[in-house]
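Sequence design from tokenized structure. All designs in this work follow the same two-part layout: the structure record, then the generated sequence. An example of the structure record is given first.
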């Protein structure tokens, strides 16, 4: 017997309609590429998303066709999130920090037929447009008067001219909620990038889950600043959860340096922010020496790579800002776990709570996880045994776009996504990432967590950033070394740093050497690029050899 409740597909357009009708005057504030601040409301956003939907119909662009965006976090990008997907097309958010050849590659692979790009990306588009013959409409996200007279790009129009020609009323089409809505390519440090193709259903469910109190806890009372870019796994789903909750949304545009972020937070009274550790490192390095404080910031979600415990302490103890450590992946929309304490843990001493809060956290309803050994057998949740982390759920990838399915079936026929991360899970269900499978250091048959080594180094007051990699060793297979970039003006010797490890980890886990570098290489999504670091240190020889 079926239930007798209304059956409505979970569509992204319904988030927009809801936002316009139920919190239409909620504010969306954007710093534009031009440098000024733009303000409007969810109602305005919905109206302009409708104009865009008309413009796509008029091209014409078929249902399911791909529209690329090369854009920062801003209101026009938001309009694309809702206008493109809402009208049944697929939004392909492209990472502008990729090499131009990679940008052309992903555009051709996705078969983008329209590309909307930020004014400041004109040189990039001039470099790639001839390599992308499938694109039939090039649109610059700007006012008509900003359009260059001779861009060399055939038929280039300004976004405002383009959508301005159409009405702001539109009936969003209704279709199967499993229809594709957007896509995002993985960072792809080896081989060609692969795309996760999200659906309306996966995105809407993820938006619900992301807003929950034990997840990102986003409400109508918040002013939310996603520093995580809208081209990096849909800014962790925040644009959708924002429409769902009606929070004030503050979009930083291209300015992600410490000063710009701090000033925007203060001016807009941001209560909640989200980003990768490298962004928060920049913010803390800006405000620390100046003795500045946050007047409104209450919580920040930090994920994308391991959040160093020293950063959690700096935010919590130094500024009274709660840190929510999150783990996710492009393939999982991206949220998988978030670290918030359980009721029974509230009475624990501070240092014990701190140990828990450093973990990547508990699974969000919708995600199931387990750790397995090399034979695929599930391992115990004892907080010590580590294994390959597997996940499943309705917002987790089944098959790569134009690719194969990486899922692995267990003995019950359940299909799990192998994350490529190595983790432990404790009896309370808190997961902790030890490493990427390929980064874990194997020394004398034992594993050493590069994240542990990095976290300790980053707890040293002189260290800005640290990256640990394994170096080949004839006796032990591999030994860890730590590459360290110091804070401006700070000094520390190799010996002092190695001594800093004493008593914090087992003796055999202490790195064999410290290599001082000017900067740790950072990839397109703000994560450490260990592949490049390994190349840079290819002639390095361990002192212990
Ligand atoms: P991406 O798909 O580019 O976002 O990369 C996903 C990968 O980033 C994961 O598989 C992890 O290796 C890593 N990652 C994400 N969040 C965290 C975290 N909180 N701690 C450690 N690693 C993380």
């Amino acid at each position: 017997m079926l239930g007798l409740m209304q059956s409505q597909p979970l569509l992204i357009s319904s988030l927009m309609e809801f936002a316009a009708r139920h919190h239409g005057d909620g504010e969306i504030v954007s710093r534009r590429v031009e440098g000024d601040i733009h303000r409007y409301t969810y109602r305005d956003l919905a109206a302009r998303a409708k104009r865009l939907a008309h413009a796509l119909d008029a091209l014409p662009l078929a249902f399911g066709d791909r529209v690329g965006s090369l854009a920062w976090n801003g209101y026009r990008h938001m309009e694309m999130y809702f206008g493109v997907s809402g009208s049944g097309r697929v939004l392909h958010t492209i990472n502008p920090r990729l090499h131009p050849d990679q940008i052309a590659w992903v555009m051709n692979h996705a078969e983008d037929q329209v590309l909307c790009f930020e004014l400041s990306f004109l040189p990039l588009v001039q470099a790639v447009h001839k390599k992308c013959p499938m694109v039939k409409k090039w649109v610059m996200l700007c006012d008509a008067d900003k359009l260059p007279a001779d861009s060399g790009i055939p038929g280039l129009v300004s976004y405002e001219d383009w959508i301005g020609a159409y009405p702001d009323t539109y009936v969003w089409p209704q279709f199967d909620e499993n229809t594709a809505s957007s896509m995002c390519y993985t960072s792809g440090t080896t081989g060609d990038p692969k795309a996760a193709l999200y659906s309306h259903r996966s995105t809407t469910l993820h938006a619900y889950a992301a807003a929950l109190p034990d997840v990102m806890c986003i409400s109508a009372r918040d002013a939310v600043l996603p520093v995580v870019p809208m081209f990096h796994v849909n800014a962790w789903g925040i644009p959708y959860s924002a429409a769902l909750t009606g929070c004030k949304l503050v979009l930083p545009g291209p300015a992600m340096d410490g000063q710009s972020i701090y000033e925007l937070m203060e001016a807009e009274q941001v209560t909640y922010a989200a980003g990768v550790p490298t962004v928060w490192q920049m913010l803390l390095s800006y405000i620390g020496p100046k003795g500045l404080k946050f007047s409104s910031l209450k919580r920040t979600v930090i994920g994308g790579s391991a959040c160093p415990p020293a950063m959690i302490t700096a935010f919590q103890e130094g500024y009274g800002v709660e840190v929510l450590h999150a783990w996710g992946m492009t393939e999982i929309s991206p949220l998988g776990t978030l670290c918030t304490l359980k009721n029974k843990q509230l009475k624990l001493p501070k240092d014990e709570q701190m140990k828990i809060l450093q973990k990547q956290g508990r699974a969000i309803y919708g995600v199931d996880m387990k750790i397995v050994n090399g034979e695929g057998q599930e391992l115990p949740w004892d907080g010590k045994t580590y294994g390959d982390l597997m996940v499943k759920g309705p917002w987790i990838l089944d098959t790569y776009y134009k690719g194969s399915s990486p899922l692995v079936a267990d003995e019950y026929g359940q299909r799990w996504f192998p994350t490529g991360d190595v983790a432990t899970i404790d009896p309370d269900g808190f997961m902790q990432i030890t490493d990427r499978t390929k980064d874990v250091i194997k020394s004398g048959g034992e594993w050493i967590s590069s994240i542990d080594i990095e976290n300790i180094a980053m707890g040293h007051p002189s260290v800005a950033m640290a990256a640990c990699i394994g170096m080949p060793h004839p006796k032990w297979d591999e030994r860890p070394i730590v590459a360290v970039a110091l804070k401006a003006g700070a000094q520390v010797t190799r010996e002092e740093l190695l001594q800093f490890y004493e008593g914090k980890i087992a003796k055999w886990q202490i790195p064999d050497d410290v290599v001082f570098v000017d900067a740790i290489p950072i990839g397109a999504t703000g994560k450490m690029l260990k592949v490049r670091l390994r190349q840079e240190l290819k002639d390095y020889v361990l002192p212990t050899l």
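The pocket of adenosine monophosphate is lined by residues 186-187, 233, 303-306, 325-330, 334, 360, 419-421, 433, 436, 525 (CB under 6 Å). We note this feature because it recurs in several other targets discussed in the main text.
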